[in-house]
Amino acid sequence: MASASDHQNMSRAIELARKGRYTTRPNPSVGCVIVQGDQVVGEGYHERAGEPHAEVHALAMAGSQAKGATAYVTLEPCSHFGRTPPCAEALIKAGVAEVVVGMQDPNPQVAGRGIRMLEEKGVVTRVGVMEAEVRTLNPGFIKRMQTGRPYVRAKLAMSLDGRTAMASGESQWITGPQARSEVQSLRALSGAIVTGVGSILHDNSSLTLRENELNLPEAEALVQNQPLRVVLDSSLRTPVDAKVITGPGQVMIFCSVQADKARKRALEEAGAEVLMLDSHDGRINLEQMLEILITKDINDVLLETGATLAGAMMEQGLVDELVVFMAPVLMGSSARPLMDMPFATMAEKLNLNITDIRAVGNDWKITAFPNND
Ligand code: AOF
Ligand code: ZN
């Protein structure tokens, strides 16, 4: 049973974990609190892949006071030698008496072994304290480890009448600067930004993180670690001088096997990685595309695209979360809808759970989850 102090300490560990959420990828964000009775003697969080894990920072702060203490960790302590030595061993060596864990590590290299290591050495463990909250820290890491696919967040900007672009394709700008700054934060959470060639041809989107638009204290460091930009472009229409190609960071283009080889070479010479996929009627296999992103250790994908690709991803059950910015404007009936999904009957409608609506400048940010089961 979780007590009030369990909740207090695990909540603090979650708060600490959140501090690393823009910088730990492809690792999960993890926080740790060490307590002696009701006194906190150590705190830490994982900051960056390759650097010490949360427990190591908290143990360093606790020093000799870790002996006989209780450690609260949002994720099961690791049991493996990865980029760093196992945390379970570090906790045992420091003489920690009890370890309270938010959730088991879904990484198959750990998956319960960390907890077993602790128990074998007589450390008391409790697993699953505030698990629902803890799971929200790392949806992408959990999804990648459990399914071999990244977590896909679709970001869309629409008018009050549910329109996203004029018939000509013109769409800049529906929402205001605060909403656009929130989009920068969503990009910073993501290992990859996925778009369709239509957005590149129409808006010449760069899909980069920009220091002056990122309203985060770590903005300067974040722009040095740009998310991978991914363009779905079956016949390779992306111009070699498009901003997505010339901007900072890596670019990957998925095209069909029928695409022109000379165009492929030209885009490669401009610095893009071009991948040809088998395709039905010239369309890229979206599931295959997501599985390939896993080979690049991508946990979180931000889908920033138009109604066609967004609708296709949604219909195929490949969207895990929708983030819709709704602007106080009306765009009229000839403008494009939020998503192209040519349903004819109410039986086909997709049901969502809206979990959050809040004001962002003059716009509204709506978070919704599709029911993909
Ligand atoms: C922990 N505490 O703070 C984190 C953990 O490559 P490495 O050595 O950094 O190991 C990465 C793996 O360790 C990662 O996939 C996940 O299973 C676990 N992350 N574990 O005990 C932490 N960040
Ligand atoms: Zn560890």
TrEMBL record:
Binds 1 zinc ion. Transmembrane segments: none annotated. The active site is at 55 (proton donor). Keywords: Hydrolase, Metal-binding, Multifunctional enzyme, NADP, Oxidoreductase, Riboflavin biosynthesis, Zinc. It catalyses: 2,5-diamino-6-hydroxy-4-(5-phosphoribosylamino)-pyrimidine + H2O + H(+) = 5-amino-6-(5-phospho-D-ribosylamino)uracil + NH4(+); 5-amino-6-(5-phospho-D-ribitylamino)uracil + NADP(+) = 5-amino-6-(5-phospho-D-ribosylamino)uracil + NADPH + H(+). Residues 4-126 form the CMP/dCMP-type deaminase domain. Its EC number is 3.5.4.26, 1.1.1.193. Pathway: Cofactor biosynthesis; riboflavin biosynthesis; 5-amino-6-(D-ribitylamino)uracil from GTP: step 3/4; Cofactor biosynthesis; riboflavin biosynthesis; 5-amino-6-(D-ribitylamino)uracil from GTP: step 2/4. Zn(2+) binds at residues 53, 78, 87. Its cofactor is Zn(2+). GO terms for molecular function: 5-amino-6-(5-phosphoribosylamino)uracil reductase activity; diaminohydroxyphosphoribosylaminopyrimidine deaminase activity; NADP binding; zinc ion binding. It comes from the Bacteria. Substrate binds at residues 171, 187, 203, 207, 210, 304. NADP(+) binds at residues 157, 173, 234, 306-312. InterPro entries: APOBEC/CMP_deaminase_Zn-bd (IPR016192), CMP_dCMP_dom (IPR002125), Cytidine_deaminase-like (IPR016193), DHFR-like_dom_sf (IPR024072), Eubact_RibD (IPR004794), RibD_C (IPR011549), RibDG_C (IPR002734), Riboflavin_Biosynth_HTPR (IPR050765). The keyword Hydrolase applies. One of its GO terms (biological process) is riboflavin biosynthetic process. Converts 2,5-diamino-6-(ribosylamino)-4(3h)-pyrimidinone 5'-phosphate into 5-amino-6-(ribosylamino)-2,4(1h,3h)-pyrimidinedione 5'-phosphate. In the N-terminal section; belongs to the cytidine and deoxycytidylate deaminase family. This is Riboflavin biosynthesis protein RibD. It comes from Endozoicomonas montiporae.
